[in-house]
Automatic annotation (TrEMBL):
BRCT domain: residues covered: 499-593
Protein name per the record: RNA polymerase II subunit A C-terminal domain phosphatase
Organism: Saccharomyces pastorianus (Lager yeast)
NCBIfam families: FCP1_euk
Reactions catalysed: O-phospho-L-threonyl-[protein] + H2O = L-threonyl-[protein] + phosphate; O-phospho-L-seryl-[protein] + H2O = L-seryl-[protein] + phosphate
Length: 732
């Protein structure tokens, strides 16, 4: 089996093949020179300079000015470079010839037969031939295997493995489900108050905490970089501290797994440590039948802030579904089903979220069913948000103190730490600080004081009940499409978005009192989330607005919507969540809010005037933008330099008539050669005679008349000068 050598990224495309160095049948070593290529670029120069060894002026300089100093001129320069073989092996065939233009990356240059393709590389060594494989010689993708980041497979092997997995899944009529842990199927806290309440039958939260599980892990020590005595000897590290974790499984998880396990092969993907993930797996899957060893943690992920399906399935994600409470870490990929975060231990949040991008605190993060809560509960929700904010402030303060200490150590250290970046150390500091702050501040105990003897922890979440129905529907849709004859293969990256888009189709939302002031709403999670379901959101009410989402019907926007357009539905955020969990647009009536005092007629008139001005401004801006984009770009090099050797494109007009005649003659020769249909690809079996390289000249443009020196104004003289420079280059 041959390997194709393709044009790599980073070359100054377009390039022209100037010389092919090895002949077909030659044996290549890694790093051997394959070919010589050249390219052109413009430079602006104040005066003429001598030629470099590897670069040549191909146009004359401008004439000197009256003061003896040459004015700046644009000159076309040619550069020549070598392209080296990334692999070793026998050269089987060339796919390019001298004079060919390579316009972009990833075009096939030649094909070789390698003694070993190094399809599987472990620890830098090929598992098949035992040779050491450099990064440049390995044409593959890194594949993070459980607990091991040293394994790499080639693209060929990855495709073969992907096809085998697809066949296996289809034979068992399954899909793949990638499952997040924290706030998706469990909620975890480290507040010692949890253990105290769990062991106190008189506590109002005792019954709710009956099924809470716990485990302990050694805290990861973040030691100073220069942790040593004055004499240079290493200090004995402090004793390892134990940290107790308390885990509440999301209601209905057992039934959820029983429903989806026959339909999906399941994987865990978490931004927590591997030790933490293994402990959670023991709780949610004690027998190991559901997940087995299919666990990817922060330790193997390779990123502290993002997740990627390519880590698990590098070549094909068409059968993969992801469930996660965070969409941003996945860059809202089409495979994602975002779930409402599970917040059982109120005011605690996700203990592993310090490694993820920061989220703004808002009422929408509290999830569903908030409209059914009493006034006292509404006050509690406000306290929860305030408590989370204060905890985060304390964490940030502690992290800042530790960072200042870390920066001082980095500045004074003779050698930087070998294995950890500053970012990794900072994230570990944040994680350690978040655990310590939660343990010391006991947020649950503070919130319980607000309710006295009433129950603080309520376990009424039903997200998984709806989710199992959604996953079953996706599974059915996929295999129904697969069973249809003469239809393209089903792809979940298309199926999931198409099902989502129907939910809020033709819905235009405005949020009031829910997104923090100063926030770009298009970057808000709830706006992005609803947009994946087909909604369009704007910051202000306009003629297209269909829904105003608010908790408070007395906000100005709610009162404005009522007066401006009575057809606008003013609804509680719970309506959005019900639509999202059901994957269908539910009736707005149970969620409609009553607006008692719309704005006055005068206020409405002022708003309509401002709205009209805004609409006119937008239309004018769009028209101007359209005019700008429709103008032709007259820059000679705007489309690259491919025209230099392409007779079909518009050529540079010349001033000499004899050159025109030569060009016509050359064109006739080109037509004769093209009609013969000579195949440029050469192989071992082919025996071609060497042919002389033909010099090609530019011909006059047929779209505009030839301009000679002395005709027109100064601009025409400048154009003619540039044309002469180009012609001189082509004649060399």
């Amino acid at each position: 089996m041959t390997t194709q050598i393709r044009s790599p990224q980073g070359l100054p495309y377009p390039i022209q093949i100037d010389k092919l160095i090895p002949s077909v049948g030659s044996y290549l070593h890694e790093g051997d020179r394959l070919l010589v290529y050249k390219f052109w670029y413009l430079v602006e120069r104040a005066s003429d300079t001598g030629d470099d060894d590897n670069e040549h002026d191909v146009s004359p300089g401008g004439s000197a000015g009256s003061n003896g100093v040459s004015p700046p001129t644009k000159q076309l320069r040619e550069s020549i470079e070598f392209f080296e073989s990334p692999y070793e092996g026998d050269l089987i065939s060339w796919n390019v010839d001298v004079g060919d233009e390579v316009a972009t990356a990833n075009q096939v240059i030649c094909e070789i037969k390698r003694p070993c393709n190094h399809d599987i590389v472990y620890g830098g060594l090929c598992t098949q031939c035992g040779k050491e494989v450099s990064a440049d010689a390995f044409d593959g993708v890194p594949l993070d295997v459980v607990g091991d980041v040293d394994l790499q497979i080639s693209e060929t092997e990855a495709i073969r493995t992907g096809k085998a997995l697809k066949e296996h899944l289809r034979r068992d009529k399954k899909l793949i489900l990638v499952v997040d842990l924290d706030q998706t199927i469990i909620h975890c806290g480290v507040d010692p108050t949890i253990a105290e309440w769990k062991n106190d039958p008189n506590n109002p939260n005792f019954e709710t905490l009956r099924d809470v599980k716990s485990f302990t892990l050694d805290e990861e020590l973040v030691l100073p970089l220069m942790y040593m005595n004055d004499d240079g000897s290493m200090l004995r590290p402090p004793p390892v501290r134990k940290c107790w974790y308390y885990v509440k499984v999301r209601p209905g998880l057992k039934e959820f797994f029983a429903k989806v396990a026959p339909l999906f092969e399941m994987h865990i993907y978490t931004m927590a440590t591997r030790a933490y993930a293994l402990q959670i797996a023991k709780i949610v899957d004690p027998t190991g039948e559901l997940f087995g060893d299919r666990i990817l943690s922060r330790d193997e992920n390779g990123s502290l802030t993002t997740k990627s399906l390519a880590k698990l399935f590098p070549t094909d994600q068409s059968m993969v579904v992801v469930i996660d409470d965070r969409g941003d870490v996945w860059n809202w990929c089409p495979n994602l089903i975002k779930v409402v975060p599970y917040n059982f231990f109120v005011g605690v949040g996700d203990i592993n979220s310090n490694f993820l991008p920061k989220q703004s605190t808002g009422m929408l993060q509290l999830g569903r069913k908030t409209r059914q809560k009493s006034q006292e509960s509404q006050e509690l929700l406000t306290d929860i948000m305030d408590n989370e904010k204060k905890l985060q402030e304390k964490i940030d303060k502690e992290v800042k103190r530790q960072e200042e200490k870390l920066n001082h150590q980095l500045a004074t250290a003779e050698e930087p730490p070998a294995n950890e970046s500053k970012e990794e150390l900072t994230k570990k500091l944040e994680y350690s600080a978040s655990l310590e702050v939660q343990q010391q501040n006991r947020p649950l105990a503070k919130l319980q004081k607000h309710l006295h003897d009433q129950k603080l922890l309520v376990d009424d979440d039903d997200e998984l009940y709806y989710l199992m129905g959604t996953l079953s529907n996706i599974h059915k849709t996929y295999y129904d499409m697969l069973s249809q004859q003469n239809e393209p293969e089903p792809n979940l990256m298309e199926i999931i978005p198409s099902l989502k888009q129907k939910v809020f189709q033709n819905c235009y939302f405005v949020f009031s009192g829910l997104i923090p002031l100063g926030t770009d709403i298009q970057r808000s999670d709830i706006v992005i989330w609803t947009s994946t379901f087909g909604a369009t959101s704007t910051p202000d009410i306009d003629y297209l607005t269909t829904h105003l989402i608010t908790k408070n019907p007395s906000t100005y926007k709610a009162r404005l919507a009522k007066k401006f357009n009575p057809q606008i539905k003013i609804v509680h955020p719970d309506w959005i969540f019900e639509c999202l969990v059901n994957w269908k647009k539910v009736d707005e009536k149970p969620y409609t809010l009553i607006v008692d005092s719309p704005i006055s007629d005068e206020e409405l008139q002022n708003f309509q005037t401002q709205l009209q001005k805004r609409q006119e401004y937008l239309e004018e801006t769009q028209e101007q933008q359209h005019m700008l984009t429709s103008q032709e770009n007259l820059n000679l090099f705007a489309a690259g330099t491919s025209w230099l050797n392409n007779d079909d494109d518009e050529d540079i007009p010349d001033t000499a008539s004899d050159d025109d005649e030569d060009d016509d003659h050359d064109d006739e020769s080109d037509d004769e050669n093209n009609s013969e249909g000579i195949d440029r690809k050469r192989s071992i079996e082919d025996n071609h005679d060497d042919t002389s390289q033909k010099k090609t000249k530019a011909e006059p443009s047929q779209d505009r008349p030839v301009q000679h020196k002395g005709e027109g104004d100064d601009n025409e003289d400048s154009d003619s000068q540039l044309e002469e420079e180009l012609m001189d280059m082509l004649d060399d």
